[in-house]
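Hi F.,

I've been meaning to write this up properly since the lab meeting, where we talked about keeping a consistent format for the predictions we share between groups. The idea is simple: the sequence comes first, exactly as it goes in, then the structure tokens exactly as they come out, then a line or two of notes. No screenshots and no reformatting. I'm using this chain as the first example so we have something concrete to point to.
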Amino acid sequence: MGYHAVARLYPKHIRESYVRLLQYSNIRTNPDRFVGFVLVFTLGLALAFAFQFANKLGLNVFIAFIAGFFGLQFIIYMWLFFQVTKKARDVEKVLPDALQLMSSNLRAGLTVDNALLLSARPEFGIFAGEIERIGKEVTLGKPLEEALMTVVPRIKSEKLEKAMLLIITGLKSGGEVANLIEQTARNIRNQDLTDQKIRSSVLSYVLFVVFAVGAGAPVLYGLSSFLIEVLKKVFAQIKIPETAQIDIPLKVSQISLDPAFVVFYAVIALIITSIMSSLVMGAIMKGKAKEGAKYIPFIILMTLVVFFVARMLITALLGDLFKF
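Output, unedited:
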């Protein structure tokens, strides 16, 4: 069974999501073949992970396999997503300059197709290739409106799509192309400036989230886990005489809370909190929760380091007091 057939094992909406990302990315391969390869690769790697590390980590083999499989799927999907996002940002960065150059070429008396082709400067990167493609299609007789819209399915950028639609609307209404393109470039620059001001204004919220998750929560969990160890030691030293006739609602002898479980719980809680806070940061800064996925490894690493360092310092400072 080939990769094309394996790809059909995916749920339809997941397969279509992969296909859309591949269309927007720079990866040039058959979408079904790629999706099938991803499924086979992640299954094999998850199985190897489960049998190799499940016992060492104290996990059930099936749980380790499921966690490894979905973890790898998430990593590959987010890698594709960031490839698409980076491509769109690179295009949006040079889009105003490219449109300004097109407008200048048109004002110089060049035809539309020549103005497009001469605007394909190497410094425009990926967008230079798209401009050349549009210019060649116009030269071969395709209407300018259709040629401009062919770039939209290849680059996932709302700014680019809106710019193309605005230019096409102006062309259909009989507006002057050079003025229209120049005004579009000016509007994009103004929008970029507005976006920068918004990001600056929400920086304080991002810093608060980073401090709360990266410093506040780990220190509190570290202190809590230390206090649990202290309480367990104190309760273990309490001796209640059998002849005592005191009604106590708590039976000290039945307390069996394992400090190792508390540490494990704290680590899991910090990881989940780090993931959610990263998504919140992405939503605040970029307007999309997915944009925060790239911060997940760094936030998790920071919170866990602070947690274990806090435990170590608290134990060193207060351990002698409780004879630890």
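Notes:
The mean pLDDT is 78.
The radius of gyration is 29 Å.

If this format works for you, I'll send the rest the same way.

G.
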